[in-house]
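help with these tokens:
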Amino acid sequence: MDWSLIDDSKFEDLACAYAKDNYGMYKWIPTGKSWDENTDATFRDKIDGINHYYKGWCEAKYTSKPDSSIPKSHMDSTLVSGILDGEVVFILFVTNGKIANSFVQGATAILRPHKIEIKFVDGFVLTGWLKANPDIQNLFFGTVSANEPECFCKIEIADCCVLNSALPSPALISGVKKLHTQTEYFLYLNILSTERASYSLEVLTDTIRLLPNSIYEDIAMPGYNSVLVKFIAKYPCKKMFQFGFKLKQAKPFLTMSYLLQLMNANMCMLFTRSNNSIFKKCIHALTKNIYKNAIICIAGYEGSGKTYLLNQLLQSVMKENTEILQLAFSAKESENASSFILTHFVY
């Protein structure tokens, strides 16, 4: 696309046309050319019954160097203004240049606590949209050449990392590689799509669990769709785990692999202090022959680490050449056994 055929002013009109076409559920209104308050188009609506207003912004960033990334400083002011406004729930950045993955990640993490959704459209996605809408392309760029290359549909994960669930200050936002079990994190995905597509995300391992549901579903709009999916790290693992990314209207589209480390007890703190104390007491009781034929009951809420603690105890006791009888009850049988022990044995 020859972006030199238009200027800043015409690009703002183009960005507004893009917003109206792809986000037609909102009533976009172009702002004034002289003072636009860090936005080039806006909408404002009201939730009936509770007298609450919400709004969205579209910000156009034209560059004469489309092969370069838009400077971060050119977009920061819109983020800050959106947070301070109090009514903004949606921000759309449209540029004919490129947008750095690091900025997309940081902006997503910064706006998440303020319940503001953000979308990014770069020159690649904008070019594909123009080729799919020749009337709009003719309006801004003149007659379309029949020899221009065809723009193919595309959807992929452009960036992926894990962030702490308690999002830190903007200066400290960075991906983490070493995770602690029984701790919540955000799985960050930056999904590039050239068309509207429904997708689902499913973890292909029991090492982690998505919250609150096992499958995350959403709709990818044309552009960069940055999402934060909360999960809990369940079991220690030092090898690669996979998650599946699928288009709902087709067979499995692709599977992405991402290397994460849920470290074991030798490399970082795995237990809470209370669990660590219980572990030591159990080992002492089982290996020092203080309590002969001791019965040890491990109880706790779901996800507190009971199974992992039991496995650690078994591994440690087996090293002492101790005979072990392990029973695997169903949930109901386990309740009955626990009730029997509590009512028939005195410690």
In short: Residues 250-255, 262-273 have pLDDT under 50 and may be disordered. The CA atoms of residues 329 and 336 lie 10 Å apart. Residues 273-344 form one domain. The chain has three domains: 3-141, 155-262, 273-344.
